[in-house]
Amino acid sequence: MAKIEPGMEAMLDMYFYETNSLLEQLDEILLRTEQSNAFESEDIKEIFRIMHTIKGSSAMMGFDNLSVLAHKAEDMFFVIRENPDVITDVSFVYDLVFQVSDSYKAQIESIQDNVNGEYEQINFDELIDKLLKAKDKLSKEASGESTADDSASSGNNSAAPVGGDGKITVRVFFEDGCQMENLRAFLLVNTIREECSSLEYYPSDVETNPETSKEIIENGFLVTFPASDNKDYILKLIESALNVQSYEVLSAAETPAEKTESSAAAEVPPEPAKPVETVSKPVESKPAASAPAETSAEKTQTAVEKTQTAVEKAQAAVASATAQGGSQKQNLISVNLAKLDALHDIVGEIITTESMVISNPDLEGLELESFSKAARDLRKLTGELQDTVMSIRMVPLSGVFQKMNRIVRDMRKKLNKDVEFVMEGEDTEVDKSIVDSLQDPLMHLVRNCMDHGIEENVQDRLDAGKPAKGTLKLTAQNSSGEVVITVSDDGAGIDPEKILVKARKQGILVKPESEYTEKEIQNLILLPGFSTNEQVTEFSGRGVGMDVVKANVEKCNGTVVVDSKKGKGTTFIIKIPLTLAIIDGMEISVGDIVFTVPISTINESFKVEPEQILRDTDGNEMIMLRGICYPILRLHEKFCINTDVTDLKEGILLLVETNNKCMCIFADKLIGEQQVVVKPFPKYLARYDIKGEGLSGCTIMGDGSISLIIDTNTLIG
Questions:
Q1: What string of DSSP letters covers 338-370?
Q2: Do residues 438 and 487 make contact, with C-beta atoms less than 8 angstroms apart?
Q3: HSE-up of 511 (CA within 13 Å, CB side)?
Q4: Same domain, 364 and 311
Q5: Is residue 546 assigned to a domain?
Q6: Same-domain status, 96 and 187
Q7: Are residues 547 and 418 in the same domain?
Q8: Looking at 322, 345, 372, which one is the last position of a domain?
Q9: CA distance linking residue 675 with residue 352, whole number of Å
Q10: 191 and 140 both lie in a single domain
Q11: Which residues, 6+ apart, have CB-to-CB distance to 171 below 8 Å?
């Protein structure tokens, strides 16, 4: 078992966040470029940068196996970057980098699940060997090009940098007491690397050897780059880099590299050299042994100058982007989701408390003009606060969609099916908690479409008048306060007879087969343990998956519907609210009970005229509204509530709509609109099918009583 290095625990969350983001970016580049079966120059550079960043951050955290793995992948892409035409067989590179990405994710997941800082270190020797062989193969294919070795991509050399003709060597000193000078040096190398056509530095093993910190403190950190590079800009980057106190530009004739060139193999520390230019922040320079102490005023000035430099750079970047037609980059910070959850809960309690204050029974009948004005202002501010908190929690679905793209890619290869994957609406935003809950359902649906939906035999598709290439489509859109996600394929569709045979065999039918509609038969596949596969495969056959889809979607107060036509294809439709905890509701009373109906589902409320009331052939009450008949549901009958209002003409009707179905709900009267915080039912009520009866949760009213929230999806469905 490996152990997380002491002192690094506080940086773990940021490491996980940044590394996972980079791996997602890597997968996105690979999936996008694989469609054209070719790497663009910018894509190669971006992959190289990603591997280089992951290598450095992993080394800093002490995850040596991850650092080495990224280093070898970086080496391979260094060869590709220097010789873009070297790849004759692109597919093996894609497969290899996808393996690297998956291996990284597996190790990170293991570290995240660690107990007491200990985790199981995965052995990547086999994969590293593949990377080394791939690098050698690519190097040999680079006709007329020199083979790049491991040190080429990282700039690591065992000797001090060579600062002869045509090169500039800079000695950098870091602030006193900044600690981990070797890592500061490594970060500096990363900062200036992209601006240097080649880069050498000394000590050369700062990335992996903490002992080099002493050398850097005493003699400084040396970097060497060609004089033909943009010297002024590189020096600006060095000057503004974090923890840099001063630097010296050394003359080429007196560089330490020349003095130690003959003894490079012995790695003799370089002697101090005469600078030709010295820049310090804020002092003139820092001789190795006699640097003057920096005053607090000077330190303050240093911070101010550094801040000004950073601001100027940012302003220049924005101006440049604007001049080129770009958009201003946003200022972003990452926040622990637990903190957002806590903030969200506090806002919910504020809204509940506000309702209790404004609706306090002690105020009934009193005319308090100033109080009413203050109450309106408070409600406006709490509404803005809630909107802001909700917007902070909203994230696009693109991350989840890209993961589905990866699943399709892998299954396409393993099942040998030619399938085009189409994504639409991936920029649709939903609550972060919903995004997390959607990953498993979408994965199972996509797998189901790939394995069961798309035909295995291309000839079957051609005979049915379909193109040889199948299509799997994933879409998302906002609609009336909810997000609608569809997963569809143009495959064989669901065979109702086959489903019924399997359902009969498993004993899950609850009524005679003749009474099942086609839609009810299709939705049987969502039941636990149901599978039409006779043999268990890597992707299906265990009867686990589709029931997970239904359970996870229902946890989000959503619904999933199956719509399939035999021979044409299958569509799964998921509908879930954009947010889970706070809704705008209409309070209605039935007897002594108060219900809350989500306003997003209400089309209108109205009083009944006698001539509007009808009955269908089964004697059920209906109402005619603008030429359309709607069924009526009496809430007092549904929930067995005693009330004096039983005549439709005396009460109120609410026309509600969900899933393109409408119904009129009959209640005693409307109480008014209220923003409510949805609370789940207590766990001891879980044995009762409360949601199945049409209730999704409850909320606390202004007077402290409980209001039950109507689930129109279930009532109408």
A1: HHHHHHHHHHHHHHHHHHHHHT-GGGTT---HH
A2: no
A3: 7
A4: no
A5: yes
A6: no
A7: yes
A8: 322
A9: 9
A10: no
A11: 219, 220, 221, 222, 247, 248, 250, 273, 275
- Give every CB contact of residue 325 below 8 A, 6+ residues apart in sequence: none
* Residues 374, 467: Cα–Cα separation, whole Å: 65
Q: What residues contact 489, with CB distance under 8 A and at least 6 apart?
A: 449, 450, 453, 454, 470, 471, 472, 473, 569, 570
HEC letters along 69-110: HHHHHHHHHHHHHHCHHHCCCHHHHHHHHHHHHHHHHHHHHH
pLDDT tens-digit readout, 555-603? 777 788 888 888 889 999 988 876 666 778 899 999 999 999 988 889 9
Cβ contact 632:653 at 8 Å: yes
Asked if 21 and 29 touch (Cβ cutoff 8 Å), the reply is no
pLDDT of residue 146: 42
CATH assignment at residue 489: 3.30.565.10
Same domain, 17 and 79: yes
β-pair type (569-577, 482-489):
antiparallel
Read off the pLDDT of residues 19-33 as tens digits, 9 standing for 90 and up.
888 888 888 888 888
Q: Which domain holds residue 381?
A: 337-395
From 355, 375, 395, give the residue that closes a domain: 395
**What residues form DSSP beta bridges with 624?**
629
Number of domains in the chain: 5
DSSP state, residue 599: G
Spell out, as residue ranges, where the chain has pLDDT lower than 50: 145-159, 161-162, 252-274, 282-330, 536, 541-544
